Amino acid sequence: MNRASKNGVWLWRLSWVLAGPGIVSSFSIASLGLEVTAHLERLQSSNLEARVSAACSLIESGAAAKSAFPALVDALTKDEDLDRIIASRVIYARPRPAKDAPVLAKALSYETKARTAAAWEISRMGPSTGTNCIRPLIDALKSEDKHARNFAAVACGMIGPLASEAIPGLTTVLLDTGSDKPQTNYKYPRAAAAFALGMIGPPAKGALPALRQSLEVKAGGPEWEYHLAAVCFALSRIGPNQEDTPKLQELAHADNALVRDWAARALEQLMPEFLGEGATNSSPVSRSQGTTPELISGLRLLGQFAETARPVRKGAGRQAVPVHESITLALGFLDSLPRPPTPEEIQQQGNAMSEEVRRYLLALGGVQQRIVPTLLQSLLEREQKARALADSTAGKPGAAQFAHGVPETDSDFDWVVRYEFFYALRRLSPLPLIPSAQP
After folding, report:
1. 368-386, pLDDT tens digit by residue?
2. Is pLDDT larger for residue 72 or for residue 271?
3. What is the SS3 string spanning the chain?
4. Are 120 and 255 contained in the same domain?
5. Residue 330: inside a domain, yes or no?
6. What is the pLDDT of residue 433?
7. Which domain-ending residue is among 285, 302, 329?
8. 257 domain residue, yes or no
9. Residues 184 and 266 occupy one common structural domain
């Protein structure tokens, strides 16, 4: 597409009429400003790094770039690589306090919609949840619903090695292909189970045969690539064996960059000289400064916009609910809520859901579809730096705040940093960091 055509595309997008209070109803090129116009033009670049930079700049500009939000929403909806990378910088920016664990653990026994919400909220606590929710999460892994399974597996992964008791349940989910029915197609939960086993790490060594078995299943589509990337991640964290070398070498030259990068990381442990042969190190995240307060506040504003904007077009003229279209918009919507509906409220409403609950559940549906690659993308570029930071500062005054989740005023700290801080502090002082209250 030449420059004139590209300009025509985004000019057309900017001509949309928006619905909802507080949003500019029409605008002209003159009203956009040269800087915003330049960012919009870069959204059409063939270079992913340029698109990521442009999207971040627009989001960080917040209300000043609101007139450009229609084109930004369209880009995030259609450009999955861009969407995943932006989301990886802010996912779990607002942690849930661990004191809520007993109430949420109880809610895991509710019906499907409430159970899904409870598992998601538990996953936001990270390892500070302790062992309080493990048995209820193990039961939730047996749910037939793909959403509940997926978030239960992610929650186990976010808890980390403290969730070792869930390894058999996660292994069962890993190998369960489910059916072709929408609610029991387990392509997302299987990837989440592989991610969780990797987050648990060496204690999950007994799951290695199941991880290898899952690599041999012949399947296609981007969802399967997420699964392959998650299994490579798990092998890299648990510890691959020489027998994994041929398969990892094959995957280190896969078309998908996330698969290549995690396969190369696993191979590095077996063949240090291999580093760089398969992985491209082309991810723009590697050159980012990480999460910023401006990016978080801008994303929340973008999430509010997604709630009121007209449905965006996707594919062959199909329309869909904006907050469900991409993980970046879904995360922005969820984090923009003053208070998300509680599982109890969702349980009480049953089939007669309020509009607030319906939008919340739609946003969760958008998150669940790409949460594993988003988490893997974030870990890919952040964990090494986070681990070094945690090891060098653990035990210093003020460091203990990371163990139970950084306060909202400090929400620019990446979740990977908080995760590594927890385990760095636990090595120094294991007992006080694990909540004692039982559900």
Report:
1. 989 999 999 999 988 888 8
2. 72
3. CCHHHHHHHHHHHCCCCCCCCCCCCCCCHHHHCHHHHHHHHHCCCCCHHHHHHHHHHHHHHHHHHHHHHHHHHHHHHHCHHHHHHHHHCCCCCCCCCHHHHHHHHHHCCCCHHHHHHHHHHHHCCHHHHCCCCHHHHHHHCCCCCHHHHHHHHHHHHHHHHHHHHHHHHHHHHHHCCECCCHHHECHHHHHHHHHHHHHHCHHHHHHHHHHHHHHCCCCCCHHHHHHHHHHHHHHHHHCCCHHHHHHHHHHCCCCCHHHHHHHHHHHHHHCHHHCCCCCCCCCHHHHCCCCCHHHHHHHHHHHHHHHHCCCCEECCCEECCHHHCCHHHHHHHHHHCCCCCCHHHHHHHCCCCCHHHHHHHHHHHHHHHHHHHHHHHHHHHHHHHHHHHHHHHCCCCCHHHHHHCCCHHHCCCCHHHHHHHHHHHHHHCCCCCCCCCCC
4. yes
5. no
6. 55
7. 285
8. yes
9. yes
